[in-house]
Amino acid sequence: MCGIIGAVAQRNIVPVLIDGLRHLEYRGYDSCGVAAIVGGTAWCARSVSRVADLEQQIQNTQLVGETGIAHTRWATHGAPVTHNAHPIFSHDTIAIVHNGIIENYENLREGLRTDGYQFVTQTDTEVIAHLIYSLYRGDLFSAVREAVKQLHGAYAIAVFSKDQPHRVCGARAGSPLVVRLGQQENFLASDTLALTGSTDRFIFLEEGDVVELTLDGVRIADRYCSLVQRKIHMVKAHGSAVELGPYRHFMQKEIFEQPQAISDTIAQTDAFDPELFGSTASDVFNEINSLLILACGTSYYSGLTAKYWLESIAKIPTQVEIASEYRYRDSVPNSASLVIAISQSGETADTLAALKHARALGHSHTMAVCNVVSSTIAKLTTLRSMTHAGTEIGVASTKAFTTQLVALFVLAVTLGRLRGHVDASLQAHYLKQLRHLPSALNSVLALEPHIIAWAEEFSCKENALFLGRGMHYPIALEGALKLKEISYIHAEAYPAGELKHGPLALVTEAMPVVTIAPNDTLLAKLKANIQEVRARGGQLYVFADTDTRIVNNEGLHVIRMPEHYGLLSPILHVVPLQLLAYHTACARGTDIDKPRNLAKSVTVE
Fold it and tell me: Could you tell me the pTM of the whole model?
């Protein structure tokens, strides 16, 4: 959500800023802007369209600069209109871009108004700009350090003063910010993807850090205002991650990358050893008696699926909570519970806050299931499982979800082995299944032409129901979420057994009912649910395992899955649902990789 890039150099860095914004488009935004200094004068360009429109503005006016900041904004305070777009100025001197939310901005604004400051936007960001200006005495680094002491909330900022060219300051609290080091030039951004280039030396700023970039290097002050040195990390370039290749959209590319992503995630799994999750994992696993999973959105559905595995394989009680709800209710803490935070980015604000809340309640055993090793969640937890999905550009998560499922399955088997419920023979069986999973997924991806035909029919619908039973119910939830996210078709998911408790009232010929039909112990029950829909004239679209004996008939459309995959079946069955959502959105002509009102990394509440 939102994206920041800043730079100081002895060359025109405006093309670098624009290129960085282009790489940050996947995060979701509804406006964008650039500000830079040239000849002691600051200029600014903004757009409520795409980065391409902003680039055209700058090319038309031939604007250049050696010091600059840029931003993609996802509106929180103030509508997505030009005057609310970042960068935002104070007295044509201080320019700022900002991710996050300042919770005490109203009090700060009133104080600044009393001091004579006038506000021309509805943003909380303008408060920061005026606050820094009020503290500025010719030393921007000092002013920013003093200003952030007064800010409450989660934020990342980049700031320059036109009076101090070749100098950009940044600060972070609860929102990520990274520094890329160059030769006589240095850069700042929300994420390494914005800073691809010949150099690969990065500093990941820590919570509360304030940084100053100059031509000669960087200075970093910690939350106590003490100057500190931070470790320099070598990070591989992300070149191929932002190239579409033969695909129409990044979402399609990432759906087809899932076999490789899963192969990469299980690459180190030769046995189900606790050390996969950290050096202290064995001790932690022997101390716990339950699990608490915290997550949002798609990650929440991976947790719901994992609950079935953890309780059936490891026989360990598992609770799954929506992170944004957990922290705001009275709960009963259990110090012997392992808290698992699931997040693709590792920066999801609600999940981070829920994790911190759990720790404050006395939960000392924590684990991250995450795709970004340098993320805040990965740093806050004692144990971690990295999913190795690679960079995911599309807002609608695909390969991050399936790799989360794989990581959680490995955890379930590992705990089952330690608790005496998984013997050597069963371990070998599960390991064989995991290793065959990429091949099985390729067989599912081969169903794409059949799914495209269904998508043409779905494209003219405005509502859909998704049904699943047991561990496939969360997969139905995920399928409905994908359809609504990118095609804007209203979709809901239910356990199939709940049809008669309300949703059946919605079933007509105009309501497609997508059903997941694996050949498991609930198949007979599911077939009865299918008949309930048919009896009401509903149109069924069933993804059925080959041996379920569910065949095409009037009102019953069937796509056969290649094989039944036992406990790992949810991972196979979610892929055709991803493809159905994708091709339906293609048929409707929506902005698939950047769906309206949504952001990739949700770093605000």
Answer: 0.79
How far is residue 530's CA from residue 525's CA, in Å, rounded to a whole number?
9
Please give the single-letter amino acid code of residue 109. Answer: R
* Cβ pair 479, 577 in contact under 8 A: yes
Q: Rounded to an integer, what is the distance from CA 84 to the centroid of its chain?
A: 25
**Roughly how many angstroms between the first and final C-alpha of the chain, as a whole number?**
11
The one catalytic residue among 2, 32, 370, 586: 2
b/e map of 582-598 (b: 16 or more CB within 10 Å)? Answer: bbbbbbbebebbbbeee
CA distance 454 to 468: 19
253, 399, 482, 600: the catalytic one is: 600
**Residue pointed to by tokens 């770093």:** 603
**Burial of 57 from C-beta contacts in 10 A (0-12 / 13-18 / 19+):** middle
Q: How far is it between the farthest Cα atoms of the chain?
A: 78
**Rounded average pLDDT per 10-residue block, the chain, 605 residues:** 88 92 78 90 89 89 92 83 90 92 90 94 93 95 95 91 95 89 92 72 91 95 92 70 80 94 90 93 96 97 98 98 93 95 90 94 96 88 94 91 97 97 95 93 92 94 94 97 96 90 86 91 87 84 89 88 90 97 96 83 56
Cβ atoms within 10 Å of 54's Cβ, excluding its own: 25
Asked if residues 130 and 90 have their Cβ atoms less than 8 Å apart, the reply is yes
Whether 2 sits among the annotated catalytic residues: the reply is yes
